[in-house]
Amino acid sequence: MAAMNLVQSKHRSKYYYDRKHVQHFRTEEMVYVLFLKNPKSHESFSIGYYVQYTHNEFKCKFISYRRETEQNEDPAKWFVSQLYMLAEELTNMYENPLPMKDVDQRSFVSDTICTSVEDRSTRRMSKSEIIATLRDNIVERLTTVVTSTTITQESRFSIILQNKEKYISFTKHIDGSDINFKFIDSFRFMSSSLDKLASYLDKLEIADKEFKKEFTDVQIELLRRKGVFPYDHIKSFENLNETSLPDKKSFCSSLYDSGISDENYNYAQTVWKAFNIKTLGQYSGLDHYLKTDVLANVFEDFRSKCLHTYELDPAHYYTTPGFTWDAMLKYTGIKLQLMTDIDMLLFVDRGIRGGINQCCNKYAKANNRYMESEYDEDEWSKYLMYYDVNNLYGWVMTQSLPCDGVKWVGDLNNDFFNVCDDTLVGYILEVDLKNPKSVPDTHKDLPLCPEHAAPPESNQEKLVTTLNNKERYVLHYVALKQALKYGLRLKHIHRALQFNQKPWLKPKIDLNSEMRKNVKNKFKKMLFKLFNNAVYGKIMENDRKRVDGKLVNQWEGRYGCEAYIAQPNLHSCAIFNENLVAVQLARTEISVRKPIYIRLAVLDLSKSLVYCFHYEYMQERVGDNAKLLYTGTDSLIYEVSDVGMYAVMKTDLHESDTSNYPADNQFNIPLVNKK
User: Fold this and answer.
1) Is the pLDDT of residue 264 over 80?
2) 40 pLDDT exceeds 60?
């Protein structure tokens, strides 16, 4: 078992600020990389990259390479050689800066505060780190780039991984240079297709600027829409030398199991003629050029929005959750207490349970007058109703949440049950609960207090709801009050933990929600929704699930494969080829750097809202006529008998968001409460 290391520390005082201040990371230089490959063999036949210089747009450039035959250099190896050339170019640029004006010189001499990090420091900054942004399936691209480095060359690199086959980031250290290239995947920031993200933008400034260097206005207009390419048609390098566009059938995609429309094929023919394309390889280069510039456009626009809203640059992070966590801490100014008592940590950890997902009743069939010809008047009227809680975790994160003052409660005779939900002091309790015999009929569809247990005929534990009595059950005091209100009985309190709480996360959540309401641009709307979801994702992150890993290209030595596989914490290996192995290691020490009591509170409060809807709305409003069929984390499906549910909805419009109903819906329900 890994040793537990509890870390008590405040959040970093240095934030990754505006890209204008680049002494530390120099991220005005971004590199956007795209590969084109055979989708079946995954063999790359083309690669291109775009270098973005924020402070010198005249130096921005797109460079590509296409492998025309098997004898030509592999695109990944070509790219590694380009990295060395780019590192040399950037080193020369940094070592020979432009002369400062007199006013800048005086300001530099007199300043004692680093504008990058708001820290009184005159320390020499560390190595320059150039961010290289990839798109989708970073694993394949990273391993391709790594394997392209020859074994005879001293090669240094480091990785952050989820497991031996799935990487988060990769850093290539350029030998003999102060330049490092850090590869990140834009998909970990914006998990939509590149085409969809581009469609959200009002304009593609980078793409338009690059296109004007080479193309006419008519040609540029053709490039403003999504291109099409017959990826599955490319079986060998000879296909790239074809002198005509393949027929329409060749554009069928095995990945999506579909072909292309006549409109798209006609568009491809028009592009072929307008650009006077000679070979299919040349056509692929045009598609590559377009997508690389679009990637640069999308990520630069994403950076600009983040910098404008939070004054933080996401290029210094690996994922959106990591970025939004820092943005939240910076915006709210909250200082969260980390637990240094191992007993406290294990106590809270026992109370962390995810959302409930279960099928309560296996079969139901609707029968009501809205089904027209399928309605059977001789049978009971039945409605199948699907309810989904709007923005469940967004709501929870605006409630009073723990922040500090975590300590054991000495006097367990305190009145924990008359404490308000939003009081300044809250509790986590370990209790014994009894399920009285009079309760099961009302609780049979959705029992209270779910627990981790192995279902019948299974050895794997899952989160299940049962009518069993609960012993030494750890839960949030709001969830306990709710359980007692609905009929469970308290037998004993073993331990209790108290904490200070307030709605400290509400300003950040409300900011994103308000920004999302006020912007018309789809890209911005998507971002602000993403920022709220990502905060929740970071709260849910479990430090224990992190792993260590190494990419090794040698057998012997301290950092060779032989040494790693001999370690007792070896988990597994993935062999890419005879010169490259990924080694996954279990962590021997875990540093708990998250306030996990927040995770418990968020999960328990979210379940309490779902329970509230079931017990206080559906059971009170419909009674025994409602039968729960299924529940997900934030959704419930009911079979309702002999009650006109749409008439009930009209009466209780304040409870529902009907904004997505058709304006002329057959239920005559007004469109209200858009969230």
Assistant:
1) yes
2) no
